[in-house]
From TrEMBL, chain A:
Domain of life assignment: Bacteria
Keyword terms of this UniProt record: ATP-binding, Nucleotide-binding, Transport
Protein name: ABC transporter ATP-binding protein
Region (Disordered): 263-300
GO molecular function ontology, one term from the record: ATP hydrolysis activity
Domain ABC transporter intervals: 6-256
InterPro entries in the cross-refs: AAA+_ATPase, ABC_transp_ATP-bind, ABC_transporter-like_ATP-bd, ABC_transporter-like_CS, P-loop_NTPase
UniProt key word Nucleotide-binding: yes
Signal peptide: none
Family listed: Belongs to the ABC transporter superfamily.
Database matches in PANTHER family: D,D-DIPEPTIDE TRANSPORT ATP-BINDING PROTEIN DDPF-RELATED, TRANSPORT ATP-BINDING PROTEIN
Automatic annotation (TrEMBL), chain B:
A Pfam family it matches: oligo_HPY
ABC transporter domain boundaries: 15-260
Membrane topology (UniProt): Peripheral membrane protein
Keywords: ATP-binding, Cell membrane, Membrane, Nucleotide-binding, Transport
Superkingdom of origin: Bacteria
Name recorded for this polypeptide: ABC transporter ATP-binding protein
Lineage per the UniProt record: Bacteria, Bacillati, Actinomycetota, Actinomycetes, Micromonosporales
PANTHER family the UniProt entry points to: DIPEPTIDE TRANSPORT ATP-BINDING PROTEIN DPPD (PTHR43297:SF2), OLIGOPEPTIDE TRANSPORT ATP-BINDING PROTEIN APPD (PTHR43297)
Organism from which the protein derives: Phytohabitans flavus
C-alpha cells in the first residue's frame, strides 16, 4: 500500500456569526467533519456549489486559517501539531494556486522576482545564479519565454498570469499543489491550455493535486478521484467514473444533470426532463442554495 | 400580449455594419469592426464569444449605454435607427421597449430600496398610477417564482439569494412588457442547479410572452439549450452565424471548431489532452492584418494574413462564415468529429 501524501481526518471549521447589537451569538459550521486522503501522483477534485466549504477546507489544510478540530497529516507529519519554522518547512511541500491571476500577483514586481520570492524567503538555492537558473527552468516548464522574466504582471493576459502563478507555486519543489478554481476566470480557449499544463506537470513531476472547482466538466477532465461537498460535508467521494457514471448521492446526480452540455439536441432533452421534474415538484420549494448570505459572511 | 402585431416586415432588431471605437491613452481603439446581426420577432438569438470579442459592447450599443468615441453603421429596432434618435427617445426605448438583464443582480439593484419599489419604478415613470404599478409588479414577481410575492415585494435585495435576485431582475426587465430582452451573461454568477432553473424560467417567459431575446454568453453549453440562432464573435467581428444545431454539428469556421474542441466534456471518453487553440486573442489596440484569427488558425493560408474575410455563405455551405477556407471546410466531411 502506498502511503497517502495528504491525510485529512475529521476536519472542522466553525466561524462565530451574529453577536453585537444585542443579537444572539451563533456559530456557522463551514467545514463539518471532513476526511479524505490524497495519494502521491493523484489528482483529487473537491467540488461543490458556493458556500459548500471547499475553499475553507483548502485553507485549513494549508493552515492559512486554523481549523477548529481535526488532523492534517502531510508527508507523514502532523501539520497541526507543528509550530514556527518547523511547520513552515513542512508546509513548504504544499503550494497553492489561486483563482484570480490578477489580484494574486504583486503588480510592482518583475516576473523573475515573483517566481524567486519563495526561494529567497525559505533560503532555498541560495546564490542568485542558482536561483536565476531555476527560475528559467520553471518558466520553460510552464510555457513562458525567457524574455518574459523582466516584465511585470500588467503586461500579461489572464492565461499567462496563471502560468506565472503556477511557476511560483512550483519554485519550492512541492509534492502537493492545492489549486482553488485555477481556470474559473479564464476564457475557454485559454482554460484548455492551463488544464493541459496541469496534466503535464502532474505526469512529469509526479505531483499530487487537490483541485477545487465548481465546474464539473473541468473536474472530470483532470481528476482521478472526486469528493462532492455540500454545506460543509462530503456527500460522497469516489473514482471519476463512479461519480460521473453512477453517482450514489441524489445531490451529485442533480449537480451533474444540471450541467448544460454543448450539444443542442441532448441539451434540449435534458432541459425538458429538468423542467418536467420541477413542474412535478412545484408544490415544494425550489432547490435553492441555502443561505448564501450566511456562507458569504463567514468567508474570512 | 400574444396578440402583438408583427406587421412590420423584417427583423425586430437589425444591426448593420456596426463599428465602434473607444478613445484610450494610445488613441482610438476599435471594439467592433462591422458587426451584422439580426433578431427576428419572437426569436432567441445567442451571441457567444470570449472576453474582448465585443459581445457585451454590442448589447450595450443597442441600449445606447456605450460612451464610445465613434460609432458608425445602423442599429434598427422595429425600423427605427437607434443611433440617430435623441436621448429622450432612447430613454423610452430602454426599459419600455427593450428590457435588459445583467450578470450581477446585486450591483444592478439599489440596496436601500425595496424590490417592489424598484420593479414598479419602470411603470411609474411612464405614468402608471402607484397602486396599479405595484399590483402589476407583485403579479410578475409571483410569476417569476418568488413565493409570497406580496410580502416579498417589501424586502430589500440583500434579503434574496443569488438565484432569487436574478428572478427579481427578470421581473424588472419584463414589467413594462418590452418586445426585446437583452440578457448579458444572466446565469454566469449562479450555481449550476440555480442556473438551470433560471434558464428554464427565461425560456418559458420568452415563449409565453412572445419575446425576442438577445442572449450573450461565453458558455456554449448554456447557448445550446437556449438559442435558436447563434452568432460567434471574435475580435469585434461576427465569425459565423447560423441556427444553433448547425453551429454545433456543422460549423464551417475554424474559430468555432477550435472552441468546441477545447471544451472538457461531462460525458464520453476523457481525452488525455484537450485540443487547444494556441496563442492569445489579439489586443484590440494592435489587431493582426487580414483575418483576426489567422495567427492562431491551423487552416490559415497566405490570403488569410492579407485580406479580411467577409461574413458570407460559401457556394456549397448552409450558412455564413467569415473565413477564406469556409468553402473548403464545407467540403470536408466531419472536420470536427
Amino acid at each position: 500500500m502506498t502511503e497517502p501524501i495528504l491525510e485529512v481526518t475529521g476536519l472542522t471549521k466553525e466561524f462565530p456569526i451574529g453577536g453585537g447589537f444585542g443579537r444572539r451569538k451563533e456559530t456557522l459550521v463551514a467545514v463539518d467533519d471532513v476526511s479524505f486522503s490524497v495519494l502521491p501522483g493523484e489528482v483529487l477534485g473537491l467540488v461543490g456549489e458556493s458556500g459548500s466549504g471547499k475553499s475553507t477546507t483548502a485553507r485549513c489544510v494549508m493552515r492559512l486559517i486554523e481549523p477548529t478540530r481535526g488532523t492534517v497529516r502531510f508527508a507523514g507529519e502532523d501539520l497541526l501539531a507543528l509550530r514556527g519554522p518547523r511547520m513552515r518547512r513542512v508546509r513548504r511541500g504544499m503550494q497553492m494556486v489561486f483563482q484570480d491571476p490578477y489580484s494574486s500577483l504583486d503588480p510592482r514586481m518583475k516576473v523573475e522576482d515573483i517566481i524567486a520570492e519563495g526561494m529567497v524567503i525559505h533560503h532555498v538555492r541560495s546564490g542568485a545564479a542558482a536561483r536565476r537558473a531555476r527560475v528559467r527552468e520553471l518558466l520553460e516548464l510552464v510555457g513562458l519565454r525567457p524574455d518574459h522574466l523582466t516584465r511585470r504582471p500588467a503586461n500579461f493576459s489572464g492565461g499567462e498570469r496563471q502560468r506565472i502563478g503556477i511557476a511560483r507555486a512550483l519554485a519550492l519543489d512541492p509534492r502537493l499543489l492545492i489549486c482553488d478554481e485555477p481556470v474559473a476566470s479564464l476564457d475557454v480557449s485559454i482554460q484548455a491550455q492551463i488544464l493541459n499544463l496541469f496534466k503535464d506537470l502532474q505526469q512529469e513531476l509526479g505531483l499530487s493535486i487537490v483541485y477545487i472547482a465548481h465546474d464539473l466538466a473541468t473536474v472530470r477532465h483532470l481528476c482521478d478521484r472526486i469528493a462532492v461537498m455540500r454545506d460543509g460535508r462530503i456527500q460522497e467521494i469516489g473514482d471519476r467514473d463512479q461519480i460521473y457514471g453512477a453517482p450514489r448521492s441524489e445531490y451529485t446526480k442533480e449537480l451533474i444533470e444540471a450541467v448544460p452540455i454543448p450539444d443542442p439536441i441532448r441539451q434540449r432533452e435534458k432541459q425538458e426532463r429538468g423542467a418536467a421534474l420541477r413542474r412535478a415538484a412545484k408544490a415544494g420549494p425550489p432547490a435553492e442554495v441555502p443561505t448564501p448570505a450566511v456562507a458569504k459572511a463567514a468567508r474570512p | 400580449m400574444t396578440g402583438r402585431d408583427d406587421m412590420d416586415a423584417g427583423p425586430l432588431l437589425d444591426i448593420r455594419d456596426l463599428t465602434l471605437s473607444f478613445r484610450t491613452g494610445g488613441g482610438l481603439v476599435r471594439a467592433l469592426n462591422g458587426v451584422n446581426l439580426t433578431v427576428g420577432h419572437r426569436e432567441r438569438v445567442g451571441i457567444v464569444g470570449e472576453s474582448g470579442s465585443g459581445k457585451s459592447v454590442t448589447a450595450q450599443a443597442v441600449l445606447g449605454l456605450v460612451p464610445a468615441a465613434e460609432v458608425t453603421g445602423e442599429i434598427r429596432f422595429a425600423g427605427e435607427n437607434l443611433l440617430a434618435v435623441p436621448q429622450e427617445r432612447m430613454r423610452q426605448v430602454r426599459g419600455k421597449e427593450i428590457g435588459y438583464i445583467f450578470q450581477d443582480p446585486l450591483s444592478a439593484l439599489d440596496p436601500v430600496r425595496s424590490i417592489g419599489d424598484q420593479i414598479s419604478e419602470t411603470l411609474r415613470i411612464r405614468g402608471v398610477r402607484k397602486a396599479e404599478a405595484m399590483r402589476r409588479s407583485i403579479d410578475l414577481l409571483g410569476r417569476v417564482g418568488v413565493k409570497n410575492a406580496k410580502e416579498r415585494a417589501r424586502d430589500y435585495p440583500h434579503q434574496f439569494s443569488g438565484g432569487m435576485r436574478q428572478r427579481v431582475m427578470i421581473a424588472m426587465a419584463l414589467v413594462a412588457e418590452p418586445r426585446l430582452v437583452i440578457a448579458d451573461e444572466p446565469t454566469t454568477a449562479l450555481d449550476v442547479r440555480v442556473q438551470a432553473q433560471v434558464l428554464d424560467l427565461l425560456l418559458e417567459l420568452a415563449e409565453e410572452r412572445g419575446l425576442s431575446v438577445l442572449f450573450i454568453t461565453h458558455d456554449l453549453g448554456v447557448l445550446s439549450g437556449f438559442a435558436e440562432r447563434v452568432v460567434v464573435m471574435y475580435a469585434g467581428r461576427a465569425m459565423e452565424q447560423c441556427v444553433t444545431d448547425e453551429l454545433f454539428y456543422g460549423s464551417i469556421n475554424p474559430y468555432t471548431l477550435g472552441l468546441l474542441e477545447s471544451l472538457p466534456r461531462i460525458d464520453g471518453e476523457v481525452p488525455r489532452r484537450l485540443t487547444t487553440i494556441g496563442g492569445q486573442p489579439p489586443s484590440p489596440a494592435h489587431p493582426p492584418s487580414g483575418c483576426p484569427f489567422h495567427p492562431r488558425c491551423r487552416y490559415a493560408i497566405d490570403v488569410c494574413a492579407a485580406r479580411v474575410p467577409t461574413l458570407l455563405t460559401p457556394p456549397n455551405g448552409s450558412h455564413p462564415s467569415a473565413c477564406h477556407r469556409a468553402q473548403w471546410l464545407a467540403e470536408q466531411p466531419g472536420v470536427l468529429r
